Every structure is written in structure tokens, then in C-alpha cells.
Amino acid sequence: MVREKLFNLIAKYAIFVYGLIFAGASWLFFKTDYFQLHYSTNALYRATHNIEKMGYSRLSGNEMQLNNPVMITLLVIGVVLGAFLIVQKRTNMIAHIGALLLFMGAVIPLLPPYDENLITRMLLAIGLISFAAIVQFILIFNHNADPTPI
User: Fold this and answer.
1) What is the pTM of this model?
2) Does 139 or 69 have the greater pLDDT score?
3) pLDDT of residue 51
4) What distance in Å separates the CA atoms of residue 91 and residue 87, rounded to the nearest whole number?
5) How many CB atoms lie within 10 A of CB 53?
6) Is residue 19 a contact partner of residue 72, using CB atoms and an 8 Å limit?
7) Using alpha carbons only, what angle is made at residue 83 by residues 81 and 88, rounded to the nearest 5 degrees?
8) Taking CA 97 as the corner, what is the angle to CA 96 and CA 100, rounded to the nearest 5 degrees?
9) Are 23 and 143 in contact (CB under 8 A)?
10) Hey, where are the domains in the chain?
11) pLDDT per position as a tens digit, 60-116
């Protein structure tokens, strides 16, 4: 019975709690690792910093690769949590929308190609995971996220 209650709590509240934790970690990640290049029309400056391909927004270090172990761990946890909630059959199909959005948002920054700036993929992941948390929060109050007994 305790295992059943624990599973019900995970199925109901995990995406929302994960979304809050991911939002806080993303804010800290962008606060510490993000910087923006100065706008310039100088051709040498633009060529040196590869503005046409990478843009003005950059991450410290390699801007094509995610090097922060906390963000990598959170994204892997998001993939596992999303896959677990998609595979389980205890909630209705509406409640699976949040799990699908969480899974897609967490897997996007981890997928290749690694020849483009990571900022766009990280912002897309933050948007999808935040939207999944909001959807799950709404479903909690509509009682659509309640697990059905087997």
C-alpha cells in the first residue's frame, strides 16, 4: 500500500516539482555561464568570433557543448522521468501530455548536431519543460492527473 501511494505521488506531482527545480537550475546556469558579445559592424571582429554561425549569445567555454554536470544530470533525470511517466498506464491520456513535453524538452539539448550554438536548444528545452510543468499543475487541480487504480 505504501508503494502504491508513493507511485501515485510520483505520477501526480513529479513533473511539476521537476519543472520548478529545472527552472531554478536553469536560472543559475544562465546567470553563471551566459554572456553576450558586443555588437559590431567590424568585419574582422565578426569573423574572429564567428558571428554569422554562432550569433551574439554565447556560453562560457565551448558554446556547442553542454559542460555543466548539474544541467546534464537534470536533463538525464528529465528523460528518465518523462519516459517512466509515458510508459506507465495508470493515468489517462491527457495526463501523458505533460510527460511527453517533459521528455521532448529534456532530450533536445542532448541530441546532436553539435555544430551549432547550444543556446537555442537550451531555451527551447526550458520552454517545453516549463510548459509541461504548467500543464501538469493545471491537471492536478482538474483531477485529470490522478492515477486510476488497477
Assistant:
1) 0.80
2) 69
3) 67
4) 10
5) 10
6) no
7) 95
8) 85
9) no
10) 2-32+62-142
11) 766 667 888 999 999 999 999 999 888 876 667 777 888 899 999 999 999 887 777
